Amino acid sequence: MLQWFLKSSAQLNSTLSLLLIPLLLPAAPAPESKPNVVIILTDDQGFGELGVTGNPIVRTPHIDRFAAQGISLKNFNVMPVCSPTRASLMTGRDYYRTGLTDTWMGNSLMDPSEITIAQMFAGAGYQTGIFGKWHLGDNYPRRPEDKGFQESLVLNGGGLAQPGDPPDPVDERGAYFNATLRHNGVWEKTQGYIGDVCTAAAVRFIEKKPSGPFLVYLAFNLPHTPHQVPGEYSGHYLAKDFAPTNFPQFGHPMPARRTAGDLARVYGMIENVDVNVGRLLAKLDELGLSSNTIVVLFSDNGCQHHNGYNAGLRGWKGSTYEGGIHQFCFIRWPGHLQAGEQVSPIASVIDVTPTLLDFCGLPKPESVNFDGWSLVPLLRGQTNPWPDRNLFFQWHRGDAPDRYRSMAVRSQDWKLVQALGASEEAPAGGKGSGKTDFELFDVAHDPLEMSNVANAYPAKVAELKAAYDAWYDRLTNRHDFSRPPRLVIGATNENPTLLTREDWRGPKASWNRDGIGYWELTIATNAHYDIKFRFEPARAAGDATFTCSGISARQAIKAGAEECVFKAVQIPAGQGRLEATLQEGPDLRGVNYVEVHRID
After folding, report:
1. Does pTM top 0.90 for this prediction?
2. What is d(CA 400, CA 247) in angstroms, rounded to the nearest whole number?
């Protein structure tokens, strides 16, 4: 309802008023070098999980102050889950164009031919660094260092405590402490909590103060599960009362079931993000860089399912309702952007890269076709009418898009949603099952999606559905999703190559002990390879079997064994499917890791 926008805007304006006194827009500074850019992305943080967006319990003073110093995009949208948002951020394009469809099982691999924002900025003389979560491919040629980042400290896969982790022992406090990360492609043991570690690395990168401008991508994996955080943060919330009556009462209510301990950890993780954002901003101030640095901050998708406050939005992470895709986005550039302004036209993660290129005066590569728009005119206060457009959202499990399944189309005033089929357990919509349930929302007056008005406006349903069909055909006709993305082994750029369950595929592939999958490969070199399997301790004596490109080998394993090596296996160049299985008595299962080391 309209009163939600009025109420939330009043809350935001009240907060901004307190923070802005006596803040005034300074006169534009003298011309400087190209501006620096800092992109801060959080992970699974919902729109309602900031003080500035109305949460009365979580402590985020640094981000609240930052929001007051910049511009807020009121109708900013992301994808329902993380890898799709990250691919769109890196490219300025709808994520299906990048060949990516999902977050796991070999479907979070961005096409290596895509040109990223890091490559665009590096090509213009910027020093580029990424610190945190990448989630667009762990192996050559998809690693951050392959895609334009000159300095990288990143975790594997979609998050810590997942199959992409290296086969190292985990700290007794959890995977978020003293994690082993990839530093410029090499595994490195870090010391400290993951949020602090990544921020410290970003600060060191900035402190080097390179001769040219810099692009920093600080991509927190917080507050993504598992909810691990130092007690000094979660302790601030253990005694809090998370009853719905202690939160603003409008829109879709908080779930009746809540776990106070889990929420304490989630809010503690968000507070750690806030503290680290404060540290980075303070470093910019200390070095005199703030006035010439554009900082953008948002989250990659909606609130995760920890049953917390979701600002009255409908749905959660993974959904194409507003709770899955509506996000905060704050942009600060002191002296260049009016502090405290709010921009109302719809915007999306696909707009971030075109906007930053425009701000920095950098040309778009001729070979790149953006789906996003530059928002610079809006951010600079353009008063001319801004054209309406349609934004498209879709996500579901699977190797390929599925027409109408878990999708949405959003214009400025209207939104068409077909939410069925968001997960592998849910019934598929569209051609998957023939079942669809289109809902239409008048989001100009009903931003919380309280009333489905599809029956009252059939022509609007048909209009938005036709727009979606054209978009879907345009994207899927240009990419053959029947050809799986392939990992590369045997290249000089990465040797050895570690294959994990993050990227294996197949109908029986899973993250469970008994999962069985395979890896689709491009073998770069006809050579001999040592093939090492790593797996959970064998329950019984049995056999390990390796198969790839018509080559097969087998060896015995003892009960309790955790690894085995196939020495000097010759594998021809070309495309192949690598299978790695263990036969333990009557039980057949896959391995956790395959390390492929070219030896000649």
Report:
1. yes
2. 40
